[in-house]
Design goal:
about 0% helix, mainly beta, 7-stranded mixed sheet
Length: about 120
């Protein structure tokens, strides 16, 4: 059974930082790319950052480039999202995402963690 469990969200002031974590289980974490998505109120869910299986390749949506960093620890089956210089428009529910190949591709989502940027 695949599980993705996020943690680390909360209320943070503009300009502040927060680190999200996602612990994965039920599949071979080290051979799968991982992603973070977010969904703000009234908006569609969007891809924020993606990291390759080894961590050697990362990509980001333009809005967060230079402020967010995705990383992973394959020994701990964990992917992180370090969020710096936060803005009110970063307020959203953040989701961990994995696409895993069994007999065909399956998509898995975590339960989400709320990040609220407000003074």
């Amino acid at each position: 059974q695949v599980q993705l469990v996020e943690s680390g969200g909360g209320l943070v002031q503009p300009g502040g930082s927060v680190r999200l974590s996602c612990v994965a289980s039920g599949f071979t974490f080290s051979t799968n790319a991982m992603s973070w998505y977010r969904q703000a109120p009234g908006k569609e869910r969007e891809l924020v950052a993606r990291i390759s299986s080894t961590g050697g390749s990362t990509s980001y949506v333009d809005d967060v480039k230079g402020r967010f960093t995705i990383s992973r620890d394959n020994a701990k089956n964990t992917v992180y999202l370090q969020m710096n210089s936060l803005k009110p428009e970063d307020t959203a529910v953040y989701y961990c995402y994995a696409r895993v190949y069994w007999s065909h591709w399956y998509e898995y989502w975590g339960q989400g963690t709320q990040v609220t940027v407000s003074s």
